[in-house]
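Now for one protein, fold included:
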Amino acid sequence: MIRRTALAILLVPTLLSAQTRQEYAARRLTLETKLPLDGVLVALGAQEPTQDYLSFTQAPSFYWLTGFREPDAALVMVKKGGQIISSTMFVNPSQPSREVWTGHRAGLEGVYELTGIRGRATNDLTGVLDSLAKTGLPMQFVGDLGLREADDETGPARLTRTADEQLVDRLRRRNPNAKISVVNDVVEQMRGTKSASEIANIRQAVDITALAHKEAMTAVQAVRNEFELQALIEFTFRRNGAERPAFSTIVGSGPNSTTLHYNGNDRFIDINDMIVMDIGASYRGYAADITRTVPASGHFSTSQRDIYTLVREAQSAAERQIRLGAPSRLMNDSADAVLARGLARLHLIDSPDATYDCSTGPTPRQCPQFRMYYMHGLGHGIGLEVHDPDQYSYTSVLSPGSVFTLEPGIYVREHVLEEMPRTPRNQEIAARLRPMVQFYKNIGVRIEDDYLVTERGMEWLSKSVPREIPEIEAQMRLPWTGPAKRDRELVDRYREP
């Protein structure tokens, strides 16, 4: 999956084990050591949807600090002289009449049992923040604080303000002298190093996703439409203990395989299509993200094999750079070099370092030709978000506790040459490249795997999913007689005590 926000699910709260509570407490303590000697930390949870029948998504950083899954919550910690002198969780009180609609709420007493933090009603939060602002203590916020484009394709993009931004804006207006800052980046950098419990959850999500991929590969020739594969994939997720997909399932066939974020999943599949399946299960809020591309016929044609082999070579080159302490940029540099050389070999670009005019004017800006077919990044961290912060984004080196994906791709869109700005030079380039674009048109290939860096080196988490051409073709030759039974051992592996 290339760029997307993960989804989580609201679960009925269960008591956290003592070990888990200690881990959340240790995270909060470590965060406080990274902040000023005196100050107030405010971590804001996500708001409850207006319609209570919609799924609730907890704010990842808030959950990472507290383990609390209910809406409208906030954590306030006060630090003086380098010591935390108070910690309070603001939560919705338990209201049985309301809970007939929403389900059980922990309430003020229950939140202490869950987290070990004293509870107080959410309605008191504004008054408490005002009082703390008047003390002159610096206030550091963790929350959904940043302008975003509203989803409106009918007109110009609009910038909307989140509920967290509105809360902070009102606090500033009431307390113009308050010292307010956002420390999301501090928490996100901490989240970039995964703990043993987080890695266990990611492993489970990966293993469930692997089952779904193998099930879908076996079923491809028995189905007719993309939505049938989507339904089978998501059924396999849920049946084996995942809460839901970690992101919108992508099943793109034929021309849809060349659309990066395609998730309509409603096209009838042709026997000559390639099918990109970019999928990931969410387990206890932690995401997997694995992509495989398979031929609808069950056998790679010459043109399909050419593109697939090139993408695999690029991924393999990047994998060889996963070494403890190595610069993370080497993964990207290696993949780019392989893709550029390979596209030149296939005559889809003029040469590995060839450019085209990516703007018009007297002196057009130049862009690499290989980027016409590979326009996204190599990979990303995974965790509570499918695009989770990873430590190498901050340190630029690979260290233990890093969990990330590598997902090179090539997408030969039928009209890719017409997407270049109309300049005389680009028209000459298009004339040279058009025959091979027509030969490879509508072939999109993305291959994505999940990796863990440990003290011993790299661990390939998703290795159970067929990836080499002979492995995929062998998996697709297996008879499909309907959805497989659940894997009881997998389902029971991390069952709550």
